[in-house]
Amino acid sequence: MSSGTIFDIKRFAIHDGPGIRTTVFLKGCPLSCWWCHNPESQAPGPELSYNAALCVGCGACLLACPSQARSFGPEGMQWDRDACVECRRCEEVCPTQAVEWVGSKMGVDALMQTIERDVPFFDESGGGVTFSGGEPLAQPAFLGELLDECRRRGIHTAVDTCGAVAPAVLRAIAPRADLFLFDLKHMDTHRHRQLTGVGNERILENLEWLVAEGHRVEIRVPVVPGATDEVENLDAIGAFVSSLPRPVKVTLLPFHETAREKYRRFGMDTVWPEDLHPPGPTRLEELAARLRGHGVQVAV
Amino acid sequence: MNERTRRLRQASYQAEVTLSSERAALITEFHRENLGRWSPPMMRAKALEYVLHRQSLYIGDGELIVGERGPRPKATPTYPEVTCHSEEDLRILDRREKTPYRVSEEDMEVFRKEVIPFWRGRTLRERIFQGVSEEWKAAYEAGVFTEFMEQRAPGHTTLDGKFYAKGLEDFKTQITERIDRLDFLHDPRAAARLEELRAMLVACDAVIAFAERHADRAEEMAATEEDAVRRDELERIAAVCRRVPRHAPRNLWEALQMYWFMHLGTIIELNGWDSMNPGHLDRHLAPFYRADLEKGVLTRESARELIECFWIKFNNHPAPPKVGVTAQESGTYNDFTNINLGGVLPDGRDGVNELSYLLLEVMDDLHLLQPQGNIQLSRKNDDRFLKAALGVVRKGYGYPSVFNADGVVEQLVRAGKSLQDAREGGTSGCIETGAFGKEAYILTGYLNLPKILEIALNDGIDPRTGRQIGPATGDPREWESLDDAMAAFTRQLRHFVDVKIEGNQFIERLYAENMPAPFLSVLIDDCIEKGRDYNDGGPRYNTSYIQCVGIGTITDSLSAIETHVFEKGEPSMDALLDALATDFAETETLRLHLANHTPRYGNDDEQADGIMMRVFDTLVKTIDGRPNTKGGRYHVDMLPTTSHIYFGSVTGATADGRHKGAPLSEGISPVQGADRQGPTAVIRSAARMDHLHTGGTLLNLKFMPSVLEDDEGLGKLAQLVRTYFRLDGHHVQFNVVGAETLREAQKHPEEHRDLIVRVAGYSDYFCDIGRELQDEIIRRTEHEI
């Protein structure tokens, strides 16, 4: 049995596929979208989160740190990433869980135990487990085993992917999952590269293949003001989706600002303009109408 | 609401809550004149008759259903024969800031001159305190348990459907037939039965006379009424009051007025806890509703108007206030009428009908403090019904609460009821299970579990007073494992439950012998057949509940002791005891560590939940099945109402990091903020308790209104409920949280870490999201409300 790195497990996830779900977040992602809501998901290794609101300044973590990677500054606790040896003593001693390590290795068995806890809810609601990230397909062996275990136990699975993976990996995984939640960000590959760090050719190819092969797919489009929400982009997405060999539902996911706090906790800089705000319902409806104009089924 | 019900609702909502001296004065007068004249049951029946023949009548402008317990809406009577308010009590009630009861100068005068001097030394409350043991008093004063009957008569009664098919004249015939069958030659209790049965006859006539007085008054009013429409209505009211409760109702109007006179009769007779419940109102009213619609006498709208007029009457009746009140203490006006909708019929069929939906609409439309409602959700009921109820829940009134109807039936059958009686049963008050119309299921008092652990940690001494109130169970510094801690706790628990039950038995007899309730006894099977009073084992089933409080706090405390003291050896028991004794004054870091690094109940954690199950199992073994004095048995309820606040105030710091004086956990909910894995984990933890061995449990789940705003969210909530009930969960209610709570959560995130908010297309823990977004959600929430 293999193991993988996950950074969160969310139970009673009600927006990640059908029914009541448990969402498992795998760490590591080939993209680096600047609006990413889970900045801690991008790097494959563990990271330290510091929540200043919970810190009582007791200094326990300073005393516990063997490599003096921690100090106390005007912003609260400071962390010297280079000096840190990842012993996690700081997390153990922090009385309020203000300091937490995000990203741990977990074996398939242990993870299945957690997933199985909510089987009664899955049964009742037609729910299951969603593997998200990061990019779950970036840990294909681990993901594959998890999918097989779920199928063996009759648990519905969904894979939330950015699609930027080797076709061979997708071909190996696709038959073992029940549903793909496939993110589509921008139809212009240059723009896509600007926004996410990679072009979109392989993503579109993978999406076409999934649909053509008859796998169940739902497309999710993040609506990020000034990045993905141009009318031209929506038109291009509409044209592309309607050209797919089978009808596929599209869900628009409005950008939201919750991640600002997360960036802070991981000591990362956000590159968002201060005046970037979530799109309102009217704007979303406008964009949805644009897609519908291409005969695409849209949910907001 | 239409124009009429809007006006009636507004009038009820705005009416000032007052104390009325009228009933107290009449009762005093009656006893002064008649002391010693009759047997206790007959004295009680004659007293009821005396009051109902004389008390002021009230028929409000625009009312269709008539009758008040007091001289006007929200004028609350007192019951000095049970508990008599002192002048000091009355002054405090008049002036206190929260939930005041205004007392006019005239009423004050009557209380001072007539009522108080007569009842001093004669109330049942005084006899209770004279008769209970010193051990009982010590435990009671320490806040180990409370005692319901020192304030109000045993009550908690829910009626079934029999009086929709029978008038009081029919009941009288039944009583007379029973008298004819009395066997003085062989039955040593025949004379006692005769007294009780004759008292029932007097009580029936008293309530009939009360209705006739309303008929007379309505006719008088009609005679001088200038508005022709209102004149017709008053004439109709008169006709209805001539018909019911003397005879069985024939239409919806009469059925509603019938119930209302039953309600008034019982709540004027005695001030039973949780007053009175109509039970399965939807199934009782449905035949009348259907027939009236078929005949064209009513439309859905006019039926709804009648029902709303009826509904508003409950709100006119605040709970009688306690005696011995303090200025800071607040009470509640809620007298806990809780209407049951849905469930299964006695023959096992789906009990949801068109009235179930109509009554949900009425509940939503009026959203008054009283009555509150609940749905009894059976696996046989459609999801449509559950979703309709959740559609009301999302408005944030906190009701309807949702019960597992099939689980309730199983609980009742386990406790010895027939399947049919169990299906006619349901829940009332907060969450208490009972066989409607056939059972006295009495709440006897709350039990403070964390306090009992505190006493075990202090070798039987209450650290607040330094008094030895429990057995010496040994120095905890010598404990080596959770088993040792559980052994000491179990011995303390056994002691206090014994003391509590001894007191209960004494009090039960006091009520049985001195405070019969002959009118209520007419309505509860098999009081007539047995010729025994409701308070003396007359009902078919007689249950006494002890309601255990703080399962979350005690579980987490034991879990902290196990994890840190026994497993890690840090802190030592000595250091922990010292920290608890000083309320963590010098050890704040330790407190936080205990709170945050202990496996805690509510997170689907086997270790913590295992401790909860051990504690629960101990409760059941100690309480369940013990006999009361009425041929019934004790059972466990897991219900706090508001006692977790009081119990918290008398309990020192606890090992889960709770400060001295802070509230305990409520119901079977996890400690406030301790559950961090979401609602499915809370449900898994709560369902590890064997709910079928209780007479009810209470679980609160908190949600933001926005989680429920769309149909998808509502649907998933419905599935969450269904899953809890698959796991035998008893009850769940949804605390849909408003902006005020969110602000509180910003200030004290540690106490609100379980608060889920809908953000944008997804939900998150409120305390986990950034300040700006929190502010935004608060604004949005305010906007929503």
SSE order and pairing:
The complex is a heterodimer of chains A (300) and B (785).
Chain A: E1 3-13, E2 21-26, E3 47-50, H1 60-64, E4 70-73, E5 76-79, H2 89-93, E6 99-102, E7 104-107, H3 108-116, H4 119-125, E8 128-133, H5 140-152, E9 156-161, H6 167-173, E10 179-183, H7 189-196, H8 201-212, E11 217-223, H9 231-243, E12 249-254, H10 259-265, H11 281-292, E13 298-299
Parallel strand pairs in A: 2-8, 8-9, 9-10, 10-11, 11-12, 12-13
Antiparallel strand pairs in A: 1-2, 1-7, 3-6, 4-5
Helix pairs in contact in A: 9-11
Chain B: H1 3-14, E1 18-19, H2 22-34, H3 40-54, E2 75-76, H4 87-95, H5 105-119, H6 124-131, H7 134-142, E3 157-158, H8 168-180, H9 190-224, H10 228-243, H11 252-269, E4 276-277, H12 281-295, H13 300-315, E5 338-342, H14 354-366, E6 372-377, H15 383-393, E7 401-404, H16 405-414, H17 419-423, E8 426-428, E9 432-434, E10 439-448, H18 449-456, E11 461-462, E12 467-468, H19 482-514, H20 518-523, H21 527-530, E13 541-549, H22 551-568, H23 573-581, H24 588-596, H25 606-623, E14 633-638, H26 643-649, H27 679-686, E15 694-697, E16 700-703, H28 711-726, E17 731-736, H29 739-747, E18 756-758, E19 763-765, H30 771-784
Parallel strand pairs in B: 1-2, 3-4, 5-6, 6-7, 10-13, 13-14, 14-15, 16-17
Antiparallel strand pairs in B: 7-17, 8-9, 11-12, 18-19
Helix pairs in contact in B: 1-13, 2-3, 2-5, 3-9, 6-19, 8-9, 9-10, 11-13, 12-14, 13-14, 14-15, 15-28, 18-19, 19-25, 22-25, 29-30
